[in-house]
Automatic annotation (TrEMBL):
Keywords: Signal. Residues 1-19 form the signal peptide. The keyword Transcription regulation does not apply. PANTHER family: G-TYPE LECTIN S-RECEPTOR-LIKE SERINE/THREONINE-PROTEIN KINASE SD2-5. Gene3D superfamilies: Bulb-type lectin domain. Residues 19-127, 141-249 form the Bulb-type lectin domain. InterPro entries: Bulb-type_lectin_dom, Bulb-type_lectin_dom_sf, G-type_lectin_kinases/EP1-like. It comes from the Bacteria. This is Bulb-type lectin domain-containing protein. SMART domains: B_lectin.
Amino acid sequence: MKKHLLALMMVFGGLLINAQNIYTGQTLEQNRKYWASNNRYYLIFQNDGNLVLYNRAGASMWDSKTNNKGVRAVFQEDGNLVVYTPGNGVAFSSNTNGRRAERLTVQDDGNLVIYNGSNPLWASKSDLKNGGRNNGFGRGNGNVNTGHRFRKGEKVFSPNGSYYLAFQNDGNLVLSYDSGDVIWAAGTDNKGSRAEFQADGNLVVYDSYNKPVWSSNTSRRGANKLSVQNDGNLVIYGDYTPLWSSGTNR
């Protein structure tokens, strides 16, 4: 009897010690709380389809913004954390596939992190947020709101991770496949100093003298979103109306 009790204690002790780690190949159980080891934070895939990180007081620290969309959350064998829609579409992706991710960790500091060994690939609260693939920057939902100024080297990925927009170190604003092959460019290499999706809805690349060297010419037309789409098209929208596109839909 004592042996059985000791065995049970060891099993449950192990579960408590490792409860903060989710490993590749695991499907997150709906409504189960995955606690940090200090029991101050937990990750939960809710019944409404949203994947949320909470603190113990019930305040949301991060969420996948997939409520009323997600039906399944998986930390896949390929290292990608994905929330799927009913039609097997992707509602959220960490864009960490193919980078040898090993574990998703709910940390004691309230950060949700995907690791390859000791190397962080994605985090809920850092410059690694939403992927970044090769350079530590990135946005995984494909959308940029007005007022956003691009950092050089920043990548904005489409939700499926197949395409990204980047303001390169050479000053060119470029849309590429995830392999790095270019499918559209502003042609501002060796000219661009900064790129901004302005508050007036215009996407502009400026030179070092603050002179525009490329523009989408969408100022004051009600633009509110720049979207890197799953079809490989870069589109500026005013609500649901397209105002400009790269014309690269595949």
